[in-house]
């Protein structure tokens, strides 16, 4: 009986390790590729921000980068750096170095501040510490859908329980669809706010299994 239990535990551990390895490999390969592709746009965006910054702030990075403390894997904090612009989602793309470095994943729970993390309580904190926060995630693509269960904390918890490569790819595809379409068309709908992390919804995806 003990041997059977040990075998089950080992099997679960192997599966978990395999999932994490696949996920990290996807982060490294796809994250590095996206960073290379986005590098020219990020360079132009940073240059535009630097030129628009007040004279006294030029030459420094305070006018170009926004720096925020976030809680990552294992409960460790890190400084999240992003461009101070949402045009063509350059703010999110500028976080790709964090994905390559392993502080973020392409897909995962929203990166929280230490205060937000503490407010969730010990139970939520434990499962969050086992996952890297994401560049995008289920909560970001499903929030504001009007469904009663589509609260960010619940969606993050659901992702933590059911995450896998298929779901990650679906979230990434949907996260990219609307900004790319808007960039190609060059449209800005009258009376609508700029696209944000919470404007993307994954159609047909339900928390019910």
UniProtKB/TrEMBL annotation:
| InterPro entries registered for this protein in UniProt | Bact_transf
Q: Which residues form a coiled coil?
A: none
The alphabetical list of record keywords is: Membrane, Transferase, Transmembrane, Transmembrane helix
Q: Which family does it belong to?
A: Belongs to the bacterial sugar transferase family.
Q: Tell me the GO molecular function terms.
A: phosphotransferase activity, for other substituted phosphate groups
The reply on keyword tRNA processing is no
Give every Bacterial sugar transferase domain span.
86-177
This one is known as Sugar transferase
- Does this UniProt record's set of keywords contain Transmembrane helix? yes
Q: Which Pfam families match?
A: Bac_transf (PF02397)
Q: Where are the transmembrane segments?
A: 28-51
